[in-house]
Every structure is written in structure tokens, then in C-alpha cells.
Amino acid sequence: QVLLVESGGGLVQAGGSLRLSCAASVGSFNCVRMGWFRQAPGKEREFVASISWSSKATAYATSMKDRFTISRDNAKNTVYLQMDRLTPEDTAVYYCAAETINADDYNIWGQGTQVTVSS
Predict the structure, then answer these.
(1) How far, in Å, CA of 83 to CA of 102, rounded?
(2) Is 1 a residue whose pLDDT tops 70?
């Protein structure tokens, strides 16, 4: 059973930065892509960014592509989300997810890490 463990969340002032990490508990787990999602109070979960495990191709939500950067370190089985110029609207629980071979969509999820941006 692969576990994804997020870290790096916390409280930051508006305009600040945070870097989230997502570490997979095992090495090769036939991962196709990994992504970050977030869910703010009272709102539905939304896509933030994704990265291919093999090609490093990335995708971003339009509203975040100029401020957030996703990257990965295969040797460490870790995916990162660098978040800059944060605003209070970025306050949410951020989740890491993985899609494995033969899965139709993201099928492994982390427990989430809270990001709070104060004004």
C-alpha cells in the first residue's frame, strides 16, 4: 500500500511563500502522474497542478500558473509545490494525489496539509 504524506503547510502572511512536499512511502509504484489539489472551507476540491512522472510535463490551474510551481525528485519519490505571492484566497487544505498505471484517474491520496494565508 502506497502512502502519500504531505508536509510544509502552515500560516503565512499575504505575499509570502510556502513549499509543500509530498513523499511517497515506497519507491516504484507505477506512477503515471502526481498532482496537487486544494479544498477551501465550504468549497469543492479544485485542481492546482500536476506533473508527469516520466516526462516532467506539467499542468496548472489557470489562476495559479503564474504563482505556483510543481516539481518532482524521483530519487526521493517526492513532489513539491512552490507557492509564491500567496493571498488569503489560497487558504485551503492542500492534497497530494497520484495516478497509477491502469487507473482512470488519481487513485491514491494523501491526508492533506493546511495552508492558511493571513491578510
Answers:
(1) 31
(2) yes
C-alpha cell at 113: 496539509
Nearest to 32 by CA among 100, 108, 102: 100
DSSP assigned state of 76: G
Separate counts of helices (H) and strands (E) for the chain: 0, 11
Distance CA 117, CA 94 (A): 13
Tell me the per-residue pLDDT of 47-56, one tens digit each, with 9 for 90 and over. 999 999 888 8
Longest dimension (CA), the chain: 43
List the grid coordinates of 91: 487558504
Which grid coordinates belong to 34? Answer: 502526481
**Among 92, 70, 99, 93, CA closest to 4:** 99
The whole-chain average pLDDT of the chain stands at 93
Lowest mean pLDDT among 1-5, 24-28, 61-65, 90-94: 24-28
